[in-house]
Every structure is written in C-alpha cells, then in structure tokens.
Design goal:
Order of helices and strands: EEHEHEEHEHHEEHHH
Strand order of the largest sheet: 1-2-5
CATH architecture of the largest domain: 3-Layer(aba) Sandwich
Strand content: 15-25%
Number of strands: 8
Distance between the termini: 58 Å
Structural class: alpha/beta
Number of domains: 2
Number of helices: 8
Radius of gyration: 22 Å
Shape: elongated
Largest sheet: 3 strands, mixed
Length: 192
C-alpha cells in the first residue's frame, strides 16, 4: 500500500456494506511477485464464487511447479483484479469465511500431500477418500484387536490380501452410499 494510511481496501462504488480490496495494491503485489520469483506459477484467487476445491482439482494443482495464492478479506475483491489478472478462482465450499487465509491453507494442505516425497508412504494418498476411486475411505483398525467388545473384522486378520482388498472396496462403497451417495455412479449405487 502506498497511501498515507497504508490501506489496501476502500468502500465499494454504488454503496453497500463492507470494504473491498483495491485493485491498485493487488496489481502491484502480483506484479512484484512476478518480477522477483523466476516462475511464480498459476495465480489463484480464493473466492466463494470460484470452482469448488475437490480432490481432483488438488491433483490438477499438484502438477503445477508453483502456485501464487491471493487471499481476500472484507467484502471481497475489486472486480478489475479478476478481469485484469485473470486468476483461477477457487472456493473452499458453499460457505463464507472472514478471509481467504483458511481456504488457502486448505489448498496448501490438499496439494502438498500429493507431491512426491512429501508423505512418508506415497501410497497413503492413493487410498484416501475422494482419491482414485472417488469413494470414501474404508474403515481402518489398529491394535488392540478387541477393545471394549469391539472386534477388528476377521478378514483383516486373515492375511488373505485379495479378500482384504475386496472387503475394503465393499466397505468403501457402503460408507459412500450411507454418507455421500452423491459421489456414486449409477452402477456403484446399485452394487454392494
């Protein structure tokens, strides 16, 4: 900000509640990043009006060399930022936060774990909910085998990897059907 009060926001033309982040400061900031960072990467604007963040979008973003995240505050951004800088607009979901910082952290968390070498076991991300299969993850258990009368399913103790894989797939389908039926294809909805 270059004015006397170092302000980055102002009242919207036409009236209305709240303050908007001004285009002059954001353009200066983005242009500076583009000058000093050799490959600033894709510019992303966090806004409730953007494309919803999904695991698929996170996978798409993880292929980018770098990302520059533009976090809003107050009532939003001056429209000329969207028009002039043409950022990819991303929303964390159908809700409003005080600013774009928490949605930016969600993007960072979802994208970074998909980058090779970040997770101790890279296959971990392969079986997460919403990953390759698009289903919710199956139930998982650890020791002890019996806790307060709640037993680990026998199939998981069997050592039969084909049966375990079949059980996990069935459980993923069941869990997805119960909790997020909207994620299932028609054939998955009718199978068990």
């Amino acid at each position: 900000a270059t004015d006397r009060h170092a302000s980055v926001d102002d009242r919207p033309y036409g009236g209305g509640p709240g303050m908007l982040i001004g285009c002059d400061t954001v353009f200066q900031c983005v242009e500076h990043v583009q000058e000093v960072v050799p490959e600033p990467g894709k510019l992303i604007m966090l806004t409730p009006q953007g494309r919803t963040l999904t695991q698929g979008l996170a996978q798409e973003l993880s292929k980018e060399r770098q990302l520059t995240l533009l976090c809003g505050r107050y009532e939003g951004f001056d429209e000329r930022i969207r028009i002039g800088l043409e950022p990819m607009e991303i929303s964390a979901g159908d809700f409003i936060t005080n600013g774009g910082e928490v949605p930016a952290m969600l993007i960072i968390e979802t994208v970074i774990r998909l980058i090779p070498g970040v997770l101790g076991d890279e296959s971990s991300a392969k079986y997460d909910s919403f990953s390759e299969s698009g289903l919710l993850e199956y139930p998982q258990y650890t020791r002890p085998q019996n806790f307060r009368g709640m037993e680990v399913p026998e199939v998981l103790l069997s050592g039969n990897h084909q049966e375990i894989a079949r059980w996990r797939h069935e459980q993923s389908l069941l869990r997805t059907r119960e909790r997020r039926g909207d994620l299932l294809t028609e054939s998955e909805s009718n199978s068990t």
